């Protein structure tokens, strides 16, 4: 499906209070109070589209898009998001100036499959200062430094996401929101995947023994590997690893043998 956009182009080479008025005139919805979540929810919940942050103090802007605009705009209200996403220019700006010094506008609503196309149009139109990527939805032209890669890696270790974030992540991967929805691998792709799987070397390295004490029955069981222990205790290997030397399920004390 192809769309042709015929919006008026506005170049942001010079900022004035009047230029903000022009920006707002091009919006289909304006939220001058970015913390008015009830209004944002009423307009944006369950709708896909393109949004824009406008800094009321200097006119700099950011353009983004989302499958669910309300969930995305809600992220910017979360202290954890503002703390953990400081690699994003817009987040650093929100932390510096305060979200109350920004206006949120909805540039347009789209079908979910056209979100990136619409976002790219508005990025090309406005060339927003706070967008570090010139291509919507990609990292083309952007490379993390070794230092930033290390910081990202360290920040993610042992991190537990809230139930709200987990539910939102799950929702974005289900049904029509999944990028592979209603698609299937070609026979050639399936054969390539199969060939690579057959060529993969199988490791015969023995697993790490796991000793588990059942505090209710005082029975000690030793498993040959973490996989075997996780299956017996009905938990993931990640959860099992987090409880090494700790109490799991309020019942089992887990210890990995060295």
Automatic annotation (TrEMBL):
Does the UniProt entry include the keyword Mitochondrion?
yes
- On the tree of life, the source organism's domain of life is Eukaryota
Q: Which family does it belong to?
A: To endonucleases of group I introns of fungi and phage.
- What CDD domains does its record include? GIY-YIG_bI1_like (cd10445)
| Keywords recorded for this protein, A-Z | Mitochondrion
The answer to whether keyword Nuclease applies is no
Q: Which Pfam families match?
A: GIY-YIG, NUMOD1, NUMOD3
Its taxonomic path starts at:
Eukaryota, Fungi, Dikarya, Basidiomycota, Agaricomycotina
Q: Which GO molecular function entries does the Swiss-Prot or TrEMBL record give?
A: DNA binding; endonuclease activity
Residue ranges occupied by any GIY-YIG domain in the UniProt entry: 46-132
Stretches of the chain forming a coiled coil according to its record:
none
Q: Which PROSITE patterns match?
A: GIY_YIG
Task: Supply the name of the protein.
Answer: GIY-YIG domain-containing protein
